[in-house]
Automatic annotation (TrEMBL):
InterPro entries: Mntp/YtaF, Put_MntP. PANTHER family: MANGANESE EFFLUX PUMP MNTP-RELATED. This is Putative manganese efflux pump MntP. The chain crosses the membrane at residues 6-26, 38-62, 68-86, 107-126, 132-152, 159-180. It comes from Nocardioides vastitatis. Belongs to the MntP (TC 9.B.29) family. HAMAP family: MntP_pump (MF_01521). The keyword GTP-binding does not apply. It is found in: Cell membrane. Probably functions as a manganese efflux pump. Keywords: Cell membrane, Ion transport, Manganese, Membrane, Transmembrane, Transmembrane helix, Transport. It is a multi-pass membrane protein.
Length: 181
């Protein structure tokens, strides 16, 4: 796998995290740098760690994991998306922005990085140098997700409560896309 291939792979793997970061930004409306860095950092870390996990687990039970991962990702994203949909109808526009914590971001980071674990399985077969590959994947995800949080927040200020509705729909659609692909 060439460097160019790894860069393209890193961008492709980051897209789910970028979409979810955008949805989180829509919901936050005015994220602090701390919130944006926590979201982007968690996504970057999980996107970097999951290929390593996939690479290690590939030798033990790749078949069992590969059949369950789309269901797990779809379930997590759909639950979080449904919660956002519910909140869009049960809160007024003056409600406080969502609180960003490691606990609230971890399920999103796991759900968006499950496909990266599958990529890690291929690293062993293709004899990819894993360390630089996962660093690249993590950094690309972090940078793109950081920008997406702020872009989503800017759009969210204009959309009001509809931003939470849009964010929830985005998460559910990403979950369904993962399940159907």
């Amino acid at each position: 796998m060439t460097t160019f291939d790894l860069v393209v792979l890193a961008f492709a793997l980051a897209m789910d995290a970028v979409a979810v970061s955008l949805a989180e930004g829509l919901q936050l409306r005015r994220p602090s740098w701390r919130d944006a860095l926590l979201i982007a950092g968690m996504f970057g870390i999980f996107q970097a760690l999951m290929p390593v996990l996939g690479w290690v687990l590939a030798f033990w039970f790749a078949d069992a994991v590969s059949t369950a991962t789309p269901w797990i990702a779809c379930g997590l994203l759909s639950l979080i998306g449904a919660k956002m949909l519910w909140e869009s109808f049960h809160h007024d526009d003056g409600h406080a922005a969502a609180v960003v914590t490691i606990r609230s971001v971890t399920p999103l980071a796991v759900a968006t990085s499950i496909d990266a674990a599958a990529v890690g399985v291929t690293f062993g077969v293709l004899e990819v140098d894993v360390a630089p590959a996962v660093v690249l994947i993590g950094v690309v995800t972090l940078v793109l997700s950081l920008g997406a949080v702020f872009l989503g927040a800017r759009a969210g200020r204009h959309l009001g409560r509809w931003a939470t509705l849009v964010g929830g729909v985005i998460l559910i659609l990403i979950g369904l896309r993962i399940l159907l692909s």
